Amino acid sequence: MNFFTNLKIRWEHFEFPKLPKLPSLRRERYMFTDNKHPDKGIMSFILGVISVASFVAAAYFTFKNGGQAQANYAFAVILAGIYSVAGLVLGIISRFEKDIYKFFPNIGIALNTIGLLCFAGIIYLAII
Fold first, then answer.
1. Please, which residues have CB within 8 angstroms of residue 33's CB and are 6 or more apart in sequence?
2. CB–CB of 117/52 below 8 Å?
3. CA-CA distance, 80 to 120, in Å (whole number)?
């Protein structure tokens, strides 16, 4: 007689421990909301993209010109700074609205903050 034949486990008497129920990976129902993307938040995002692109373009063309900034580059930087301030204000105003998606206001605030930091850095470097 074999040793393992004497150690038969009777599966009908064995109970597995109960595990907690895991959450479902798929949605069980649809959720309809009245949320919308705020117009001011979208405008903040657009102004942020324009201002950051203007700063990058002005820095690139100034570097390409041997470090000599032309007057139109300076005007573009000043205008981009104004766009950054306006976009930051619009982003903060739209962030406090009710029943909205906060994607565009958050991205607009981030881009316009980056734009203001670029503007402050360029002004600081111009003063030194």
1. 99
2. no
3. 11
Q: How far apart are the C-alpha atoms of 60 and 39, rounded to whole Å?
A: 32
Strands (E), 24-126: none
pLDDT-based confidence at residue 70 (cuts at 50, 70, 90): confident
Task: Count CA atoms closer than 13 A to 18's CA, side-chain side.
Answer: 2
CB 47 within 8 A of CB 108: yes
If DSSP codes are grouped into helix, strand and coil, which group holds residue 22?
coil
Is 111:80 a contact under the CB 8 Å cutoff?
Answer: no
pTM here is 0.71
> Structure tokens of 55?
């700063």
Task: Answer with the residue of higher pLDDT: 29 or 91.
Answer: 91
